[in-house]
Each structure stands twice: as C-alpha cells, then as structure tokens.
Design goal:
The complex is a heterodimer of chains A (451) and B (503).
Chain A (H helix, E strand, L loop, with lengths): L7 H11 L28 H13 L9 E2 L12 H7 L2 H4 L11 H18 L3 E2 L6 H15 L6 E4 L5 H10 L6 E3 L22 E8 L10 H9 L3 E6 L10 H4 L3 E5 L15 E5 L12 E5 L5 E5 L6 H4 L12 H38 L5 E2 L8 E5 L4 H10 L2 E2 L2 E2 L10 E5 L6 H16 L1
Parallel strand pairs in A: 1-13, 3-4, 3-5, 5-6, 6-7
Antiparallel strand pairs in A: 2-8, 7-8, 9-10, 11-12, 12-15, 14-15
Helix pairs in contact in A: 3-11, 5-11, 6-7, 11-13
Chain B lengths: L1 H4 L51 H12 L22 H6 L3 H4 L11 H18 L3 E3 L5 H18 L7 E5 L5 H7 L4 E5 L9 H7 L4 E7 L11 H10 L3 E6 L11 H4 L3 E4 L19 E3 L11 E6 L8 E5 L15 H38 L15 E4 L9 H10 L6 E2 L8 E4 L7 H20 L1 H5 L12 H7 L15
Parallel strand pairs in B: 2-3, 2-4, 4-5, 5-6
Antiparallel strand pairs in B: 1-7, 6-7, 8-9, 10-12, 11-12
Helix pairs in contact in B: 5-11, 6-7, 11-13
The chains are: A alpha/beta (451), B alpha/beta (503).
Amino acid sequence: MTYIPTSPKERDAMLQTVGVKSLDDLFDAIPAKHRFPKLDLPKALTEMEAYQELSDIAHANENVRGDLISFLGAGMYNHYIPSAVDHMLRRGEFYTAYTPYQPEISQGTLQAIFEYQSLMSALTGMDVSNASHYDGATATAEAVSLAFAQYRGKRRKVVISPTVHPQYRAVIRTYTQGMDMHLVGDAADAELDSDPSDLIELVDADTCLVIVQYPDFFGRVYDYTKFIDSVHAKGALVCVVANPTALALFKTPGDMGADIVVGDGQPLGIPMWYGGPSVGFFTTRKSYVHKMAGRLIGETIDSRGQRSYVLTLTSREQHIKRERATSNICTNQGLIALGTAVYLSLLGKKGLRQVAELCYQKAHYAATQLSQIDGFSLAHNEPFFHEFTLVCPKPAAEINEHLLEHGILGGYDLGQDYPALANHMLIAVTEMNSKEEIDTLVEVLSEVSHG
Amino acid sequence: MAETLEKVTPKIVEPTIFDLSSPGRIGVTMPASDVPETALPPKELLRSDLPLPELAEVDVVRHYMHLSKFNYSVDSGFYPLGSCTMKYNPKINEDTCRLPGFLFTHPLQPIETVQGNLALMYRLQEWLKEIAGFAGVTLQPAAGAHGEFTGVLMMRAYHKSRGDNKRVKMLIPDAAHGTNPASVGMMGMSVVTIPSDDRGNVDLKALEAACDDTVVGMMLTNPNTLGMFDEHIEKVIALVHGCGGLMYGDGANLNALLGIVRPGDLGFDVMHFNLHKTFSVPHGGGGPGVGPVGVAPHLVDFLPEPLVGIIEEGDDDMPPLFGFIKPAQTIGRMKAFNGHFGGGFVRSFTYIAMHGPDGLKDIAQYAVLNANYLQARLRDTYHIPFDRICMHEFVAEGQFKGSDVRALDIAKRLMDYNFHPPTNYFPLIVHEALMIEPTETENKDSLDAFADALIKIAEEAKSTPEIVKSAPNNTQFGRMDEVKAARELVLCCWLPEGYDLNA
C-alpha cells in the first residue's frame, strides 16, 4: 500500500458503488489458470531500508568525483554542473508533467523547450532544432531517415566515416536493417589516418547522406567546408555529429554548410549517470523541417493575445501518420533538454567559451607532457579540442590496468573497435582535471615507460 | 481598415531567455586555467561569435521558476490522462537516482569499478522477467516506441533465422497507439488493421481471416486502449501462433496487470515495458522514458547487445562478477552506452524494491478499482460505448444529444476546475473520446471531485454551452492559434534581425 492513499472504509464504499464484493472480483476477465500469480520477488522495503540498500549499491561503484581520476571520454564527458541546474530539474512542476499536449496548462514546458531549440540552433549555427532525440546515436540514425525521405528512397546509399563513434555506427546499422539501403565507408580495413576528403570518391548519384564527426572520434578537428561543398556537388546531404562543448570555440558546422548537425547534449550540464539518460540534439536547415522526425515547438498567440507556444507540424508524427511516419518517436528527452537549456543559460556567452578554452588548454598541456614520455607519442598532428589519441608502447588495455591500480581511469582503449590500434588510447581532458591530476597521469605513465 | 494591416503585438507573459539577456552579466564563473597556455588554433578554425544569452544566476532561476508555474503537474493535481499512467512519483526516487556512485560513473569504465551499477541492472532485468513472465529482458530501449522498434526487429530476425522470408504483414487492432504502426513502417513491413468487436475485444473472425503464412505477428495492447482486457486473449494468441506469427504485447497498460497476470504466461512472445508509466519514472514534460523489452525463450538470442550477465559465479564469501554479454544472434545495439540507467533504472529499482510482490498487486487492484469507480459515477451522464468492468482506464464519449459541445471543449473546461483533462480523440474508434486513467495514487476525494466536475460540465453543456466552448477561462493562458504556429513556423528566437547564418 506504499503510495496508495485509499482507506479500507473508502475502498469498501467504492467497491459497493462499482457493484462488486472484493478487489479480486474486478479481474474475472483474466483466464483463471493464470490469474494472481505468486511473484518471486524480495519482500517490500520501507523507504529507510530502500535508501540504505541503494546507497550500498552506489558505494559498490568507484566514481570519478573522489574515487578515481578520470581521463575517459569517448562520447560522454565529466564536466562541472552548476548547482542551479539540478534545482530547476527537481521542480515537480517540470518533472511530474506529461508531454505538453494541453498547451494552456503546459506553457512552462513548451517555452522552456522552445528556448532549448533556440539555444541549440545558436550553438550549432543551424536554422532549426527539434525538441530532442534519445541520444546522439539515435539522433544520427534519424538523420539517415531524414535524408532517405528527402530523396524519397531513390538514393539508397549512406557514406559514413570510420571515425564516427563506433557505437553510433552500430546503432545506425541496427536502425536501417529493415530499410532497403546500404552503408559504406567504415569497413574494417578503412584508412583511419587519411583526410576526410578520401570519402568523396565513395559519394555517387545513389548517395543520400554522408556522415562525419566533429571533432572526429580520434579527437581531430577538420574544417569540413570544402568537403561539404564536394558532397553537395554530388547531390547528397551532409550530417555532422558534433561535440556541443567544442562548438563554443570552433567554427560551427552550420558555417561549414552542413545540412544536419546532431550530437549528444550530455556535456551540457547532464551527469554521465553510467550512460544515460542524456539528450540527442538534432538541428537542420529550415528547408528540411518537414522531413525531420520528433517533436517541434513553435511560437503562436493565445485567445487573449498573449505570446505562447504549441507543439507544431504534428502531422509529421506517428500518432497522425501511423505507418507512413518516417519515425516512430513519441516520448523524447524533455527533462534532459530542459537541463541543457538551464546549463546554457547559466554559462551563457562567456561561460561556455571559458569551459571550452579550459578543456582546450588542459588537454593540450596533457598532450604535450604525455608525448614527452619515452615510448609515448601523439598519433596525429591535426588540431584537436579536448580529446586526443596517444600511442603507447604497450596495449592500451595493459596500461589502463596499471593506471587503475593508481586510482586513474585511463583513456578509451581504441583497440576494442579498431584492432590495428591496440596500442592507442583516446585521452579526454576537461575543466574537471587539475594540473596536479595531469601531472600524476604523466608520472604513472613514466613508470610504465621505465618499467 | 488600418487595423487589419497592423501587425498584432502579442502580450509577453514571460520573456524568453534571449529577451532577458544583458551584455556583461555572468551566471557562473569558472576557475582560471592552472596549466601553461597553449595558443588557440588559427582563427579560420574558430567561431567568431557565440550568440548565447548573458544572465546572472538569479535571472536564470527566476525565469525557469516563472515558467514552472505555467505547468500543470502530478505534484499539483489530478492528471487522469488515459494510457499515460500519470501516477504519483515518489520523492525517494529523486534522491536514490542522484547518489554520487550513480551520477558520476562513466559508461565505459572497467566492469570491476562499476559492480554496483551492473548488479542493479542485473537484478532489474531479473525482476522484470519475473513480473511479466519472460525468459530474457533488455533494459536498453530509451522509451516505449523505441522498445516497440526493438521488439519488431527481433520478430523479423527470428523469422529470418528460420529461413521464413515471406512474412511481411503485421496485424494491429484499430484501437492501437500510433507508435505501433509507425514502428512497423520503419521496417518496411505492411500493416493489416484488425477491427474490435462490440465488447471491445479483437474481432476474432477478422483476425482469423487475416492469419496466414505472411504474418510476422500481431501487436496487441492488452488491456487495450479502451481499458478492456480481451475476453478471448488465449484464442487470439492461439490464432496468431497457429499461422506461425509472433505475439507482441504493448506494455503501455501493464499497470493493470501487476500481480494479476503475467503476459508471458498468456503466450506473449515479446513485450515492452514503460518504466515511466508502470514503475514511476517521472514523465519529465515529455521524457526521458524507459522502454525495456521482455522476450520468451525462443527470442532470447536476438536481444540487443549488450545485456548484463554474470561473468563469474559467486559463492558464500564473494558476490558474482557482473559484466556485459552479447546474445548469439543479436539484432545489434539500439542506442549508445547502457540505456537510461540513472534517471530510469535506479528509480524503477527503488520503486519495485519498496513494493515487493504484494505491493505490486495492490497497485493493479487499486488502479482498476479507481477506474471502475469513476466509470460507475459517470455512467449516467456520459455515454460509455464499451460498458463493462474495465481495467485501469475507460473511454467515455464527450458529446451530448442536441448540443454542439465536443470532447475538446469538455477537456478545456476541466482546466477551469483545476483538473488536467483526460486524453481526448483517442482511441480513434470512439467518437469524441475521453479516455480516463485515474491510477492507483488518487484518493476517493479527488475522484469524487473530478466526477462532480464532469457532471457539472455536462449540465453546463446544456445550460451555458458558450462557457464550455470558450474554456479555459480561469487559466493563465487561453486556447492557442495552432494554425498560425504551423503557418509561420517560428521555431527559435535567437536569430537577431538581419543575422546572416553563413557570414
């Protein structure tokens, strides 16, 4: 009866109104032989016991705010989250509301998500943003659906760079397995060190979309402007998977001419939470808005002449179009999108740039120091943001074991996804890493070199 | 005449965050860099301007506080939104999901450092299997629709693995949620709509006629969106299985079945859960949801990767070592990383742990009692097209003989009485549908007050219809011009006038 407010007396009165004798009598439609199974579950805990149990479980982890020094990124990043973000997310008016289908009593959610759309458009340099997708990977998969729909299924090829996040590429493969299309560009033997322009030769009249990442999975920053021009010349669209913190410092994909810019909003004030929930942002040109999946909030006016907001262009969506909808997305990541809006509002023009520059400075200091250790070097010469690929004298897996003994969570072992890169690790450095932590990492790796 | 040409300037109730910006204000100050400076990359690679607003923390907090007050929420009142299970969200969940051990763990950490997380996921998988009667569960899908997509991919993979390649049709009842056919459409399959009979069950004759060797399976919400438990459920499943199809259960309405019946026992092969409906993950103003999928033994090998499993068995002194495993014929990965762990799994784990087997049964019993009680109170005033003992929800018609008041008007008028309206115009098979789901967390007083308001509105529809048709009148905002929104498509507010995006 944990959260059930009905007293036995009230229950009996209600049963009488309904016209049945007991609660069990309400379930006569259920086949008798399967009715009221005995569930083999642990006995109910009180709130006090549950809190203790969950605390014990949480303590069985080693976290990156006290237990471990972390240089792990690869798509999810340890950033500082200003206190006010969570205070806003804990407002019951926000988190216990449903999707804003009744705009008269949902203007809080509607205006906040309209502002999220505006903030994401500003950050990516694009015209429009939708109200969010599940995460960066599924947002990228939805970009494929947009491009496929844009060419009405007549172009059936997607070119994807091998330096797009491996899990994102895996999700796109899962999503498209029922569609009559093929993905090329990221075969196991694909060249990883070359310029993105190498992908151009794969783009042909059958290609609807080319997907690249910015910075790419190895941390490299390329100006894709010419690349995008070349793809456009062949009639295909370009989707850029972007890190949102990097966009506070680097030229926007919008400026480079991208048609779709997607990514994961987790770095913008959302805890890593062992992988989720985060938020997938999806921005595009206004001309593609009718092909874009997901909810969209537009400005309007109410019957009293007040500026207000509604879900708009809903005729694109599954509840109207049913099997003809390009996506089945319904629930998105409303509360998390709100969190990123609060974060971007708090940090603002100066603060976000400052976070990006801190990441840049610390990552470059780390790269310089690490590359001076015997046997270690940087894999690439291209500009990078807050993540870079370090070549190690031994398999990254071995090095990470050693680091962990010293309380350090090392970089992502690239050999897991690229067998040729077993000695490579992807090091991420954010504003959360102090010089002292970086120096500790250098010190411990120096022992590896000499050991 | 000048008036018609004049552009109407709307009244601003709350400025946007961009309107509130004032150059030079700072919300958060970051520490100075503690490392030697590195030159920034060449200017061509940098952005020239970052057009974000500039505000102090107090400005930001007040802005979002003002916005929050424009929302109706479960914390503020009764929210009987059919098919959405707007139950009370226990506050303890908000604390457990924010424990630092959960908040600050990275999804790619070595498994030895996250045994707490993995144990929690493993136990939640086991609990969901037990609650719904399945052999395997994936926690990965991000929402109900994502779970459906996962389920349909597995059904397709199962038939393909048997060399059964001619199956292209999915059977879907006319009362189904739109996500069902949309999930099928994403797979390039076709949809065959199966009508409902006059008691709200699947029409058995139509189903029998549609069953052949091209059927992938059937997607059934049971209890359905009319709130009816199908009286011939075993026959329905036997027909689908009889033609080689698989039975998909849309778990949107699982709240009615906890401890009452296990879909797996009835013969469902695959089903998604909505942890944000049944197991109290808050809806968050439109997500995040959580949509795990359970499967029968013959589909376990097709589950998405990775699952959480035991890598090394434990003993009396040592707990087992949990890790990730890859099903033999997996359909692949549905999203990056490990699913909606913090905001989803931890909250639901807390909720199930605090209920136990008897507490879960209480949930279903009281959810069904509350719905039947409301149905009984409204029966004489509103026509109920499928009038029998309902499950957790029921559908009434929002129209009256000789009145042009419609369901939409009734919904809006309920706001004046400080209630959130029921779902309206769904399911599609009921005219002017008002779909009412009270959930188990409402007491008799709020149910009575809601019934009284609906009965009063029915009187108003006859005596003062203009009040109902112009509603809401007592709320901060009135009805919206949705046509204007779609025609003008103002979707963001950051672009200053004349700003050249490509400059």
